[in-house]
User: Which sequence fits this backbone?
């Protein structure tokens, strides 16, 4: 037999889970669009860099924004990707190209990871049923 307080807590947790799933559905549409625009801005001026930057950003957004994997692991993977892309695009290490690409991706992936809990809270506040 559940205590009324326990039942109320379980109901609130179920509503929170449903709101998080609803936000996940919205972010699954928004993240590829954001990844496309960012990859156009920070790619190393060739089509392969733009294509793989888009794929990398999409995977990183999905991992840290929806699946909520560890930010530092994905930033490490992102740094290695940017280094490889820089070397393949320029033939040598171009510091300005690396800074432009890595820092742009770093900023947006970090904002996504850190901001997700606040988006959950705002989404739940926005869709909260009226108090009786």
Assistant:
């Amino acid at each position: 037999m559940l205590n009324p307080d326990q039942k109320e807590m379980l109901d609130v947790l179920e509503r929170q889970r449903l709101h998080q799933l609803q936000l996940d559905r919205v972010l699954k549409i928004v993240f590829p669009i954001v990844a496309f625009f960012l990859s156009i801005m920070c790619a190393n001026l060739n089509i392969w860099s733009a294509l793989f930057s888009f794929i990398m950003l999409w995977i990183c957004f999905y991992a840290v924004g929806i699946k909520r994997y560890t930010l530092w692991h994905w930033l490490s993977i992102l740094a290695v990707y940017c280094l490889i892309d820089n070397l393949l695009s320029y033939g040598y290490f171009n510091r300005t190209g690396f800074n432009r690409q890595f820092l742009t991706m770093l900023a947006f992936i970090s904002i996504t990871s850190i901001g997700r809990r606040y988006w959950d809270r705002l989404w739940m506040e926005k869709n909260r049923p009226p108090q009786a």
